[in-house]
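Quick entry, no commentary yet.
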Amino acid sequence: MALAPGTHTLGPDSGRLEVRTYREGLAQKVGHDLVLECTRWRATLEVSPDGQPSSVSFEADPRSLEVREGLHGLKPLSDSDRRDIKDNIERKVLGTKAISFQSNAIDSVGGMTVRGELEIAGARRPASFELVLGEDGRLSGTCPVVQSEFGIKPYRGFMGALKVRDEVEVVLDVQLPTDAGA
């Protein structure tokens, strides 16, 4: 599928950017696997004249993460639980610095592999992930992020018996502009 050449700006109106966390530890039954949606983010996609992505960058506000689902817990998440999770993300996990990514290579052979630099909580590390471009112009993919590689200590509760797994997933699902004339 050919994309419309040029610079395209994407954000929450284009689709969803989620963070999915998973629990572990002796008390994992009392916790929840979480689906967090980032509600303030902006991405720029550069598409070359031949309709192929050539550059991707994004910036996300970690304070905009909203708890959308709490899965597999003993009881549903309350409004108070959701507020506590949001507060802990800001105070104990991510802080307030923007999360950003800048690609330095996109390989479109047999799929789409994006490589670049990801910055979280002030630490910058190489990152790569696979994206799938559907015939309908939907772009989706999952980027695994190991929190400790960015100096983040995964959240722990119940005196360490409940832990968030070190690897979380950043999931993107957006509708891209297509080149109707291609």
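second:
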Amino acid sequence: MHFEVPKSGLKTVKEFLGEYAMIVVSILTALALEHAAQSWHHNHRARNAEQNIEAELRHNLKELQKATMANAAELKQLETQRVALRMAIKGGNEEKDSFNKLMSETKTFGLAMESPVLRREAWEVAVASQAASWMTPEKLQRYSGLYSAQKDTVDSVTINMQTMLNGPAMLNAISDAELGKLDSKELYHTLRQMHGAVQGVQSNLLKLEREMKEALART
């Protein structure tokens, strides 16, 4: 910052006040220019951060949509298998016939559930660089809310999987079925676990998908 030094030998109050006013104006002008430069720089960084966050969130939304579509197909298959096996059991069919009926409906047996990887690098960079603090309150609240919802969804998916699925028992039931040593009721329980797990995950993912669509539509 630069300002004028008063000239020596001022003889009147008027001359002194004139020089003093020049110093004050110089200081205020320099401060205003510095503030304007910093504001431009901050706004520029905030806009760049917003663009990166928007791109990241739209990428995450596409990944969510892919996952929910795949899970919808998986739910349909599991429901078909469950109904086929239930009908076979109620019909009093032999264990082997029950499994054959199940396989004839879908050809495959297993769990193929999709849980997307939701990125958050752009948000973390914006927070670490303080660019997030220069965004408008409305945008900052919207972005922080979406990333918080993403984290909550990922946590819910993990908890749902741990709660609904009995991994060792499922593997044993599938292995027995492959070896022809089938317990139809145990296999039915396994199908119910699979269906419930995918249904719970799908519910969480669809909720997040709706929130992201609504939020991104306002940009």
